[in-house]
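Appendix B, example 12.
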Amino acid sequence: MNTDIRTLCDNYLEDLNKMNKALVWDSNIGNPIYTSIILSYKKRFDAEHFKYCGKILKSHEGIFSDFRSYSNLATITTLACAADPEIKMQQLSDTYKMLKEDFLKSSYLPVTSIILNELSDNKVKQTEIVNRARNIYKRLKSNHMFLLDKSQSPYFLSLALLEKSDDTIVNEIEECVTILKGITSKQYALNIAIVLTTNPGTPEEKCRKFINLYNSLLDKNIKFRKDHFLSVLAILSTLDISNEQLAIDMKEVINYLRGHKPYTNLFGYGKKDCYVHSAGLLCTYYNSAEGECIALTNTITAIIAYETAVMAAIAASSAAAASAASC
């Protein structure tokens, strides 16, 4: 493992343990992803600042606000990374109100407002992005009535920035879904297809690189989970790094993390969780080495994949807990 990746892993482990300790009463499912996001902004986790940002959120949003539902930690993390958390919270709140006019109210809408603010703080530009995102969404919804849901709304913002026609975007996504349907369910294939479409190259080339990366990891006994988190692996596959090198780096990061707390704890993170977290860390590492424009695009796409996957996992976990409690 090279020194830079090891340093990133050490910073990640230190900050993750601090976050788990500071948020001991909250679900820790999303903590590894939010730790990675903070590091991707070249910042470190600060428990006091995080609590301060949590107070800002509570002072702006009521207890029934979507910002304080599944996206609670996503919002606080965004505030913690901002130059001025108070101003950022007001921007997020204003953007959320605008989005409610175009999209159905949901717990995923705050993440959409977070992403939209990362893409632009200009209201006119935001409106243009939302309008195009809505049109692309409607086009795909007509073809995949039961596959598109509220969790995927943030992805369409990144599609709206592409210098491709709506027809080209939709056709590329459909072609990717056709190629990918053998590796996972059609719903997750659709998420992967959207991630791949935001990057250059033909659908065939991008899908083959993703599938080959998945298989390269299997050859190293790394069986990546086939759910929302596959989108994180899709981001890794779009980087201008060979699959062989990515697989080697993944193996080294996994082995390193699994030798340290909280991956050694009885109630810590499991093997498959570690695979996802390692992929997220490598996205952070490689994006920091890219040009500024590419890094920003990849980082935003990564944040979309991380946060929508985490929220889906938290929602599933909450549903399972509620079901168990009713038995």
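Residues 3-22+30-317 form one domain. The radius of gyration is 19 Å.
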